[in-house]
Every structure is written in C-alpha cells, then in structure tokens.
Automatic annotation (TrEMBL):
Source organism: Amycolatopsis alba DSM 44262
Protein name as it appears in the record: Peptide ABC transporter substrate-binding protein
Domain of life: Bacteria
Keyword Cell inner membrane: no
InterPro entries in the cross-refs: Peptide/Ni-bd, SBP_5, SBP_5_dom
Signal peptide: 1-22
Lineage: Bacteria, Bacillati, Actinomycetota, Actinomycetes, Pseudonocardiales
GO cellular component: ATP-binding cassette (ABC) transporter complex; periplasmic space
C-alpha cells in the first residue's frame, strides 16, 4: 500500500496501498550510501537474519529510554484507512504490530519468522497461499494472535463487504491484491488459507504489519461473536458495525483497544506534544532485546531535529525530509559519537495536478511541467544530503531497476519560453499583469503541502521559474494537509508530497487507475483507459516479462497525461548515538529492528 509522507513517503503499503510519503521499488539490493559513515551498509541487515527469514536477535538490550525524532506525528493505530495512511504511522507501528513480512534495510522481503512458520503457495490453479502462524503468539493483552486476525485483515481490505445501502463496510486505503482473494478460510487457529480468482505475484506484500488489526477487539466493540463467521454477504448490520469500528474506532488513543502483536506496545500518546511512548510487549514471543522504553517525537523542522541530537535531547534523528543544513550539522557530530547515514529511499517527491479544477486543461499541465526546472531544485536542496542526487524520470520505476526509462527529461524543465509558447498556442493570452488567462481563468494556482521547510523551498524555486513564463503560483502550506483530510478530499490545485512504497509494484494501481469509490488513493481525478488496462494486466500477469511490459506501458501513459511531475527519489538521512547500530529502512523507518538494539559499548 502506498503511503503518503508528510513526506507522505511513496506514502505503498504492502499489498494494498501506497503510503503518504515513501515509494515503490523492487529488491534491488543495498541502497546508495553516498555521504554515510563507512559502516552504515553493514547495518542494513538484522543480526539474526538468515536467508529468506527474519527474526529479532536476542540481545542484551538497552536499559533506559531511547528518544527518536521523526518528521511528523503519529495519528492512528489503524494505518490502513484513507485518512490515517501515512509513513509516520508506519514508522511507529512497525515495532508494535506484526505482519507476515519484514523488509530489511536492503528492501529484501523476508518472512517474519518470529510470528509465522511459513507462507507457501500450495497450488497455482487456482493460486492458493497458506500461512502458518507459530503456536503461542499473543497480543499484549494476552489474547491469541491467530487466524481470526488474518481473516479480519482480508475482510477489511477485500472491498467485498458492503452495507445494506451498497457502501463499503470497511473503508480501506487500498484493496489491491486482497480483492483477488475469493476464499479466505481458517483451517484451524494457526492455519490461514487464501484462494485467488487470478494469479497475484505480489502476494508476499499482503497481510503486512499495519494490515492486521486485533480481531478480538473488533468483535468486542462491534458486538460480533465470531469475525470468521462474518462474510461479505452476511448480516449487513453486523458488517456495518464491524466496519465502522475498524475504520474509525482505532483513531483516538485508547490503550485497551490498541494491543501490540510486535515487540513493543504503545503506552502513551500525547497529541499536543506529538509524542508516542513505546514499552516492551511482555507477551512478545521473539528476542527480548531493545530499549526498555522508546519515545518517538515529531519534529517537523529538520534543522531543529539535528540541533536536538547535538544537544542530547534525542538519541536518533530519523528524517525522510532531506535538508542540507541539518545534514551538515549531523555530519559534524562525529566527535560526540554520532554516526550519520544517508540512503536512497523507496520514496519519491512529486507534484500531483488536480483534474477536478483548472488542471483539467492538459495544455496548462504541459506548460507547468515545462516551466519546472527540477535540476535546480535537486542541486539546491539535496546535494549536501546525497551528492549524486538527480531528478527522477519515472513514476513506476526507480533508477537502476529493470524497466526504468527516462520519460520526463523531454517533458520537464524546458524553460519559460517553451511553457509560454504552449499556452499561447492553446489560446491562452498574457494579460496586463503578465499572467496568462483563458476564458476568464487566469493561470494562477496554489501548490499545497504540509508544514515542511524543504517543500516550502521547493515551491519558492518553482514560483520564480513560473513567473518568467506568465504563470502565477502561491505557496499553500498547511500543517494538516496530509493527515487532516485535504489531500484525500482533493482539496488542492497542485499537491506536493511523497509516496512511500513497499517493494510491490501492484500497490501503485490504487493511485493511478480511475477512482470508483472512496477506497482509492487517486485523489487527483486522473482517468485514462490505457493506465487502467495496463495496471490491470500487470497485476494479473503470470509471466514476469508480460508484467514488466505492462508496468512500462502504464508508466508511459501516466507521463503522457502530464498528470504527476516526479521531482526526485527522496534520500533519507539519519544519525544516532549511544546505540550500537540503526538503519533507516526505506519503508518502515528506523524502528524496524528496534527489538535488537543494544547500548553502544
């Protein structure tokens, strides 16, 4: 699933949607380490990682509290609804909720062997995947983590459960992959079987950590005796009650309704201070290492985050919002025992143009692309963080991946003169104020984004570039733009944010295909039959060559629409002291292996 980051990083969530602020990509090996300390690369794997399996190592741990700074605040225990689906929730929940997969720092997809014994394709026709849960896995409230929880995950994400008025009972951020499962069965308490109507190569991205909510809590609060007896076609009233609680009941912090299945549980949440406190889950079945307590604080000002590390207010600075000044501050703290790291993320920064407003005019979209010099943005804002950072020229593929093609160098950054010509040829006329207009509509609009210094600087650069072409742009900075509902409600002209994805490209489908209901992440109103059919063909493909060709066709069609302008693949930057090793995983942040951190000797 894509998730938005305030980064919204290429905010994909495994198996269903992108997350606001992080992005998609494949298992392409270790990330670029440009600018990092020399030992950072070795920290990208878990201490007990073995082959295709991941377990948290049983270490001596860390007595005391580790304080972590991230860019934006935690906002919801259920991160798979459209208005909570952000990378910053994932960064906290990765150590609180257990799923079938774990991603290491190299974006390798591993079986979560602390909780699952296996995930096995037992048949190819129909595709059948069987999950085996380990015995004695429990939630922190002492209830069993078992097949009921997997079944609820499918029911909530399938898109098949409807209320009596035909609306979705569960409002999931994405249904990709899950909607292809037509049979989900608990063979016993520890065996969950899924049968697909069509092949789905990215099945390992389903049932990730944030997708699996506690079924026993939903049963209790929605008065549903047994969630596994609730089917998409069963009692509409019970479906509505279960879906209402799943969608909305996990939002306000209530500890008794938000148990942990991972190594840490949430024990406190201060919305005003934007701080979440995590303590060890006493029922965690895996390794017993890690800090006694972890406090995660939101620090939107990356420079302030770096200063907080320098002053000893935090132990880890973990930012998906690269900032040159902050990077230089953190690099200069080596004498204090600080280790600095930077790596390319599965996240990309981009600008979406809203088809529901003035950007329904393709010529205006084209002129906007032409006027934006992305190289200037990259040079001014990223070089100190990652010296070889360059503009991104694909939406579907990351540089170095098989299938990547440069689709945007010929469309973007062509200059003010080219943009002005595009508008003039399309009947736009420059007025006395120097701004183009057509049919009473001036070429004047806002670029909206969350409270973020680098994004503000990005817009400032674009304002200057556009002015020379007769286009007027205003900076619309809103601290709640991503998590307050404006993005999901399409309340913008142009939206500057990021998508974060696990390495499963099928999750991108939800963002770019024609929107048919509120579960879609296509907030900009893009609708193109070639994009739709290409993603459909890619997701259903059984042949990898056909899949690749279909994704390339979708990528080309998105570019030809002038719908989304990719700016750059976002490099992370993080620094830490007092801990033996941390690595900022591209999709899950630094806490992905917090349960094995140790005090630095």
């Amino acid at each position: 699933m894509r998730k938005s980051k305030a980064v919204s990083a290429w905010s994909l969530v495994a198996a269903s949607a992108l997350v606001l602020s992080a992005c998609s990509g494949g298992d392409s090996g270790s990330s670029d380490q440009n600018g990092s300390s020399t030992d950072i690369k070795s920290m990208a794997v878990g201490k007990a990682q073995n082959g295709e399996n991941f377990k948290l190592a049983d270490t001596k741990g860390y007595e005391g509290t580790v304080t972590v700074g991230i860019d934006d605040g935690y906002s919801g225990y259920n991160n798979d609804t459209p208005d909570t689906n952000t990378s910053y929730n994932t960064y906290v929940l990765t150590s609180v909720l257990a799923g079938a997969d774990v991603l290491d720092g190299n974006n390798k997809v591993l079986l979560n062997n602390d909780v699952f014994d296996s995930w096995e394709v037992t048949s190819k026709s129909p595709q059948t995947v069987v999950y085996k849960i380990k015995p004695n896995v429990k939630w922190s409230d002492n209830e069993a983590f078992d097949c009921d929880d997997m079944y609820l995950s499918w029911l909530a994400h399938s898109g098949k459960a409807k209320t009596s008025d035909g609306k979705q009972a569960f409002l999931a951020a994405s249904t990709t992959g899950y909607q292809l499962i037509n049979e989900a069965t608990c063979k016993d308490d520890l065996t969950f079987e899924t049968k697909y109507t069509e092949p789905y190569l990215d099945y390992k991205g389903l049932f990730n950590s944030t997708a699996i909510m506690p079924a026993h809590i939903v049963e209790k609060r929605a008065n549903v005796p047994d969630i596994t007896k609730l089917t998409p076609t069963s009692d509409a009233a019970q479906l509505k009650a279960a879906g209402e609680f799943w969608t909305n009941g996990f939002k306000a912090f209530k500890a008794e309704d938000m148990p942990a299945s991972g190594p840490y549980k949430i024990t406190a949440f201060d919305a005003n201070q934007k701080a979440v406190t995590l303590e060890k889950n006493p029922n965690w079945i895996g390794g017993k290492g890690g800090p006694s307590k972890i406090v995660v604080k939101a620090m939107e000002d990356t420079k302030a985050m770096a200063t907080a590390l320098q002053n000893g207010e935090i132990d880890i600075a973990a930012s998906t919002q690269p900032d040159a000044t902050a990077a230089n501050t953190m690099k200069g703290l080596s004498a204090q025992g600080v280790t600095y790291g930077s790596a390319s993320q599965l996240t990309f920064e981009h600008i979406d143009l809203n088809y529901k407003r003035m950007f329904k005019d393709k010529n205006l979209r084209k002129a906007f692309f032409e006027v934006v010099n992305r190289q200037e943005i990259t040079d001014k804002l990223l070089k100190e963080v990652q010296a070889d950072a360059t503009p991104l020229n694909s939406i579907v593929f990351m540089p170095g991946e098989q299938g990547f093609k440069d689709l945007y160098s010929s469309k973007a950054g062509l200059g003010a003169q080219a943009a002005a010509k595009t508008l003039t040829d399309a009947g736009w006329v420059k007025g006395g104020d120097g701004i183009f207009a057509k049919d009473g509509q001036r070429a004047s609009f806002k670029i909206s984004h969350n409270q973020n210094t680098r994004r503000q600087q990005t817009v400032e650069i674009i304002i200057s570039q556009a002015k020379a072409a007769g286009i007027e742009i205003t900076d619309d900075q809103d601290a709640n733009f991503l998590k307050g509902g404006r993005l999901a409600a399409s309340d913008y002209d142009a939206a500057l944010f990021g998508w974060s994805a696990a390495p499963f490209k099928a999750e991108q489908k939800s963002i770019y295909i024609t929107r048919v209901d509120d579960s879609s992440q296509n907030y900009q109103g893009l609708s193109n039959p070639t994009i739709d059919s290409s993603f459909e063909a890619a997701v259903k493909a059984t042949d990898e060559a056909v899949q690749l060709e279909s994704y390339q066709k979708a990528d080309q069609a998105i570019a030809d629409e002038y719908a989304t302008l990719p700016l750059f693949q976002t490099p992370s930057m993080w620094a830490f002291k007092g801990i033996d090793r941390t690595y900022m995983q591209s999709y899950n942040g630094v806490l992905w292996n917090a349960g094995e951190w140790e005090q630095k000797k």
